[in-house]
Amino acid sequence: MVNLNNFSLFGNPVSHSLSPIIHKIFSKQINIKYFYNTILTPKNCLKIFLKDFFKEKYNLGANVTLPYKKKIIKYIDVLTKRAKISGSVNTLKKIENNFLLGDNTDGIGILDDLKRLNFLKKKNNILIIGAGGASYGIVPNLISKNNKVYIYNRTFYRAKILSEKFNNFGNLFCLKKNEIKNYNFNLIINATSSGVFNKIPDIPKSIISKSSYCYDLYFQKNGKSTPFLKWCKKYGSIYFKDGIGMLVSQAAHSCFLWHKKFPNVEKTIIELKKKIEI
Ligand code: ATR
Fold first, then answer.
1. How many A from CA of 193 to the centre of ligand 1?
2. 69 given a catalytic annotation
3. Distance 67 CA to ligand 1 centre (A)
4. Residue of 24, 69, 210, 260 marked catalytic
5. Atom 25 in ligand 1: residue holding the nearest Cα
6. How far is the CA of 131 from the centre of ligand 1 (A)?
7. Which atom in ligand 1 lies closest to the alpha carbon of residue 192?
8. Which end of the chain is least crowded, N or C, by CB within 10 Å?
9. 189 C-alpha vs ligand 1 centroid, how far in Å?
10. What percent of the chain has a predicted confidence (pLDDT) above 90?
11. What SS3 class is residue 177?
12. Among candidates 61, 68, 5, 67, which has minimal Cα distance to 34?
């Protein structure tokens, strides 16, 4: 048996994950052979599963997904600055003395993807819908002196907690539902889990126009449009994209952390789509 370096995804559920396919494509591209598999991690087993995994010599890194991105922090020895800021971790790497490094590549993943798509202008008015884990991962990267970021969430107090956490980073505000229509947004990001339930967040259709760029963190595995993007298109948006590019971008940053080689995101997206679309 060949001893290949091994990487895993811890989460629950994990069977739907595209990460094993993405890393197979990366492995070929960067010409470094490695395994990547998923580990279904039951509640209360995260600590022991991690310990068992990382004691093996060839197990060098991992990704972490829902519902463990925040919970995992207490088991990590060293956090990168961006993991500390977002308060959540999606990438692990075994470092000297078997210590575990925790990183977060979600924020840089969405930023890269919005740039790749040309969805960011010099100055942006961004509406982020949702105040769950996904929003915590991306908000710090979207705040800058040229961007105003507005959070709207169905449950207002969660939007308020989120905006207070990152308030000192720059222009970040939270909105109540009746306030949304008073603003013009050039970029609208759906960071809710509504798509999972085949639903769309309840926002006024008047904020959508042909100049609004709409981005859904969610995507359908069969490549079909998400409920939110269908809705944006219906009400006039002509620029709309799902989160598959973000998924590949955040994985590319994990790959770089582990192998010091950065894969080609654009080519990977094309290859991935060919593999999954029916
Ligand atoms: P996680 O942190 O794991 O991403 P979460 O904390 O349950 O998941 O957050 C999911 C987000 O999607 C929340 O912002 C949630 O809104 P609430 O805070 O009001 O629950 C949002 N969400 C889920 N389904 C939604 C729906 N049908 N319409 C609008 N927002 C929805």
1. 5
2. yes
3. 13
4. 69
5. 194
6. 7
7. 12
8. N
9. 13
10. 89
11. helix
12. 5
What is the CB < 6 Å shell around ligand 1?
66-67, 130-134, 153-155, 158, 192-194, 197, 199, 201
- Maximum C-alpha span of the chain: 63
Instruction: For 143-190, give the secondary structure using H, E and C.
Output: CCCCEEEEEECCCHHHHHHHHHHCHHHCCEEEECHHHHCCCCCCEEEE
Provide the pLDDT for residue 154: 97
Whether the pLDDT of residue 1 is over 60: the answer is no
The topology under which CATH files domain 5-104+247-276 is Rossmann fold (3.40.50)
Q: For residue 136, which atom of ligand 1 is closest to its CA?
A: 2
pLDDT band at 11 (very low <50, low <70, confident <90, very high): very high
Whole-angstrom distance, CA of residue 156 vs CA of residue 235: 25
5-104+247-276 and 108-242 share one fold: yes
User: CATH class for domain 108-242?
Assistant: alpha beta
Q: For position 2, what pLDDT does the model report?
A: 66
pLDDT digit string (tens) for 177-188? 999 999 999 999
pTM score of the predicted model: 0.93
Alpha carbons 56 and 15: distance in angstroms, whole number? 23
Domain ranges of the chain: 5-104+247-276, 108-242
How far is the C-alpha of 248 from the C-alpha of 17, rounded, in Å? 12
Q: Ligand 1, atom 21: nearest CA belongs to which residue?
A: 192
